[in-house]
């Protein structure tokens, strides 16, 4: 796996070159020149994973709990926001902890899927910690926003699938966190919105870019201009989230659905999952011709892996594959 994953960095560089080549090709086509084609990305007590089946336990005072799940959930890592006194608002310390956790996860080959959730009932994340921000000098505010934006980008660029479990309110930076995840699951009672214009500012951690890419430009403008808050049902209807679930008594319905979804990812080839995410993310930023070249380059990365050999052998022997991530 080390060789395959080590090649992802080289692959990213090749994809950038492919995009540049395709752009040049398009320009030449417009002037009448031809170029050759490119070649080459229930209650907690009833369900163990709801509150007890963790490989590592976190202290109560930790604002971010990083938990590696065990048994049938092995390979799933849960990032739990835990600032109950501040509604999980993004403080300098929480952003620092998240950056450190994400940095560790991106190089951990045992990680297969990351679930981002809240461990505070009724709230996902209320956005930036405005009380802390009010005490900052203007230069500190700019630095904090830059650090938060960078951390959310790091989350978006994790090489494994990420799922946001929204069991409560996700506003401003909280929704921007969720938008950085590959998939969003929410309880029907959850509230979501980019409300920054109420404060005479705009979303500054990716919201103006990721929301339009998720729900479309016109509707994203409407929500940002109005600072409107939507519930889980409306969020599902406009494509902001992938799944909506009726909230349960424990208040963790979205988290449970996210875990069930993450378990569907576990049996798949690890290298293929990482390269598939890279191909999709890179391809969505370019035209179709370039995107197809990116897919070709990414597909080539899966050919020499031991995972692919194991997958074909398991198919032939009619048994579940035993992937090692190689």
Automatic annotation (TrEMBL):
Which UniProt keywords are given for this protein, alphabetically ordered?
Acetylation, Lyase, Mitochondrion, Signal, Transit peptide
Report the principal subcellular site: mitochondrion
* Compartments, as annotated in UniProt: Mitochondrion
Similarity comment: Belongs to the enoyl-CoA hydratase/isomerase family.
Task: Say yes or no: keyword Disulfide bond present.
Answer: no
Question: CDD domains in the record, alphabetically?
Answer: crotonase-like
The GO terms describing molecular function are:
enoyl-CoA hydratase activity; RNA binding
Q: Which GO terms describe its cellular component?
A: mitochondrion
Q: Residue span of the signal peptide, if any?
A: 1-20
Query: GO biological process: any one?
Result: fatty acid beta-oxidation
What's the protein here called? AU RNA binding methylglutaconyl-CoA hydratase
**What is the organism field in this record?**
Cyanoderma ruficeps
